[in-house]
Automatic annotation (TrEMBL):
<feature type="domain" description="CBM6">
    <location>
        <begin position="445"/>
        <end position="580"/>
    </location>
</feature>
<dbReference type="InterPro" id="IPR008979">
    <property type="entry name" value="Galactose-bd-like_sf"/>
</dbReference>
<feature type="signal peptide">
    <location>
        <begin position="1"/>
        <end position="23"/>
    </location>
</feature>
<dbReference type="InterPro" id="IPR005084">
    <property type="entry name" value="CBM6"/>
</dbReference>
<keyword id="KW-0378">Hydrolase</keyword>
<dbReference type="InterPro" id="IPR017853">
    <property type="entry name" value="GH"/>
</dbReference>
<protein>
    <submittedName>
        <fullName>Carbohydrate binding protein with CBM6 domain</fullName>
    </submittedName>
</protein>
<keyword id="KW-0732">Signal</keyword>
<dbReference type="Pfam" id="PF00150">
    <property type="entry name" value="Cellulase"/>
</dbReference>
<dbReference type="GO" id="GO:0009986">
    <property type="term" value="C:cell surface"/>
</dbReference>
<dbReference type="GO" id="GO:0005576">
    <property type="term" value="C:extracellular region"/>
</dbReference>
<dbReference type="InterPro" id="IPR050386">
    <property type="entry name" value="Glycosyl_hydrolase_5"/>
</dbReference>
<dbReference type="GO" id="GO:0008422">
    <property type="term" value="F:beta-glucosidase activity"/>
</dbReference>
<comment type="similarity">
    <text>Belongs to the glycosyl hydrolase 5 (cellulase A) family.</text>
</comment>
<dbReference type="InterPro" id="IPR006584">
    <property type="entry name" value="Cellulose-bd_IV"/>
</dbReference>
<keyword id="KW-0326">Glycosidase</keyword>
<dbReference type="Pfam" id="PF03422">
    <property type="entry name" value="CBM_6"/>
</dbReference>
Length: 582
């Protein structure tokens, strides 16, 4: 099954190979567009390496353990400081490797956004042997060098993003690994000067590297400067300290690097530009981040107005964490408006990213202990689980999500559907899992009444796949010991399956279903033509009690065709369909 899915991923990448703006020299801002050295418009189609240099607890299902230093402390408690140090060395070695970058390029990405943690490049202010000086660390720079080398090999751009600043740039603690008991970036001149010095050092090192796409100088500042109660900075009117610091960083970069784009982000997680513009540099790009709102022109009109007024390009520097439907709509929206994007993240635990990290056996036991819900595992037990996590980090051991990649690229351009896996009806008996419906847009491959999450839109409580398992489309899927199944089925919903029928003839179909009532109804269609009358789904004794119902006398033609399951009335669960030649 994996090999077949991978072929479709690669097929999508080949289809759009000609559309990718592979690196053609230094990028620059040209009026409202980002262009390459040939003056050609570049649409950045990128991915962010969240969880690489900087861990955030949600990526690993850690509940309330958000900051990386808290994750590290939890690991130290279990295996000790020396083994924890070894764990993090292996983490940084395993999480992103050349095989990851090769796959990104092959699947259609032309850029990478690297979320950097300052502590891989320099010591925290309070740990400097000499106050006011900067101790430079090789680790971070060497990691950037390696990533840049892999990007060059794949003709990709690498965008450097300072994700965790000295002291931390906001009240959302995990995104900057902030210690709230210590002075923040905004409360410490020493932290600010260290940030300026770090960007000067980075720009000096990479000034002549055309595959560096730009410097994203501060990620998602979220701070109330004029009103401390505005903890996210979304209502800030002047943003004066933020503008001052970004101007100082820009000046430091320009002392050693006149070529690279400087990317700025507003307050309020990158989106509040009050008081910040006009731009103070002629090679500058405005970034905005977009999560959990509608994908209408209205949703980005404010940024389009800024672009028009100040004649600067836009870049959606971070987006994602939603359903495939939302992904396709969001990317379609920004690309129609000549805006590139970077998806977040490349990998984590979960279904809504291109690849996923498998949860190792014993992981939940560690999480329960850290949350105060369970007994402390032995150091040997914890080490075994953590070692398995390190192996699971590697790309070859990741779970690949072809449906996500398809939604990010092919579905943006085409409403056509593709098989999720190869479905061939042949021999005496063929089982088709209900969850293996086609890949494609909502209303093309399937129809579900709830396809996306609008978590930042008041009054809208949709989720997409409510089971959060198997694949990232709108259809609700759970997985148990017997595999995936579709649940929360509602009237009017449907799923399409592209099948290759090897032999024309009369078939019967056994539906594996469960229900705690006898109200459910479904029909089978070939395209829009009914193959069966409406079938009653009986009460099987509960949603956890599975049974089969048999439908006879189904006429199928030979060849490739699209079968559909249409829900005439919901209230049941569907695991599979077994086709048998009569």
């Amino acid at each position: 099954m994996y090999q077949h899915k991978l072929k479709y991923i690669l097929g999508a990448a080949c289809l759009f190979a000609m559309q990718q703006a592979h690196s053609q020299g230094f990028l620059k801002a040209d009026g409202k567009l980002i262009v390459n050295e040939k003056g050609q418009k570049v649409i950045l189609r990128g991915v962010g390496l969240g969880g690489d240099m900087l861990q955030e607890g949600y990526m690993f299902r850690l509940g309330n353990i958000g900051q990386q230093h808290k994750i590290k402390a939890g690991i130290e408690d279990l295996i000790g400081p020396e083994k924890t140090k070894t764990f993090y060395e292996k983490w940084l070695a395993n999480n992103t490797r050349k095989i990851d970058v090769d796959s990104m390029a092959r699947w259609g990405f032309n850029s990478i956004r690297l979320p950097m943690h300052f502590n891989l490049f320099t010591l925290p202010v309070e740990e400097e042997p000499v106050a006011g000086q900067n101790t430079w660390l090789d680790k971070g720079f060497n990691m950037v060098d390696d990533l840049l080398k892999w990007c060059k090999a794949n003709h990709m751009y690498l965008i450097l993003d300072l994700h965790a600043t000295p002291g931390g740039q906001g009240n959302d603690l995990p995104i900057s690994d902030r210690y709230p008991e210590k002075p923040s970036l905004w409360q410490s001149e020493a932290n600010q000067q260290k940030m300026v010095a770090l960007w000067h050092k980075l720009a000096q090192r990479y000034a002549n590297e055309p595959n560096i796409g730009g410097y994203d100088i501060i990620n998602e500042p979220n701070w109330g400067f004029d009103d401390a109660k505005d903890i996210r900075g979304t209502a800030e009117k002047t943003n004066a300290p933020l503008k001052k610091l970004m101007m100082e960083v820009t000046a430091a970069i320009r002392e050693v690097d006149k070529k690279h784009i400087v990317i700025i982000e507003g307050n309020g997680f990158g989106n509040n530009y009050n008081g910040i513009l006009p731009a103070w540099d002629n090679n500058m790009v405005l970034s905005f981040h977009k999560y959990g709102n509608f994908n209408s022109q209205k949703a980005i009109q404010g940024f389009l107005d800024l672009r028009e007024k100040y004649n600067v390009p836009l870049w959606m520097g971070e987006s994602g964490e939603n359903s495939n439907t939302w992904f396709t709509e969001a990317i379609g929206l920004v690309e129609r408006n000549n805006i590139g994007w970077s998806w977040w993240p490349w990998k984590k635990m979960g279904i809504n990213n291109p690849v996923a990290i498998k949860q190792p056996e014993g992981w939940q036991k560690l999480v329960d202990y850290w949350a105060g819900r369970g007994a402390k595992p032995s150091s040997e037990e914890a080490q075994k689980t953590l070692d398995q996590l390190l192996e699971n980090l590697k790309f070859e051991n990741n779970i690949k999500h072809p449906d996500v990649v398809d939604a990010l690229f092919r579905q943006v351009q085409s409403a056509e559907t593709k098989p999720f896996i190869n479905l061939t009806i042949q021999g005496k008996s063929t089982v088709i899992n209900a969850a293996d419906f086609d890949m494609g847009r909502q209303r093309s491959a399937y129809y579900d009444k709830d396809t996306s999450s609008y978590q930042f839109t008041p009054g809208v409580n949709t989720q997409g796949n409510r089971g959060h398992a198997y694949r990232n489309d709108g259809v609700d899927i759970k997985v148990d010991d017997n595999g995936p199944y579709v649940f929360n089925i509602e009237e009017g919903e449907w799923m399409q399956y592209t099948v290759n029928v090897k032999q024309a003839g009369t078939y019967s179909v056994k539906l594996t279903v469960s229900a705690d009532n006898g109200d459910g109804r479904l029909s089978l269609l070939n395209g829009f033509d009914k193959l069966t009358d409406t079938q009653i789904i009986p009460n099987t004794g509960g949603v956890d009690k599975w049974s089969t119902i048999k439908i006879k006398d189904i006429k199928l033609k030979a060849g490739v065709q699209q079968l559909r399951v249409l829900v005439d009335k919901g209230g049941f669960q569907l695991r599979s369909m077994t086709f048998e030649k009569e």
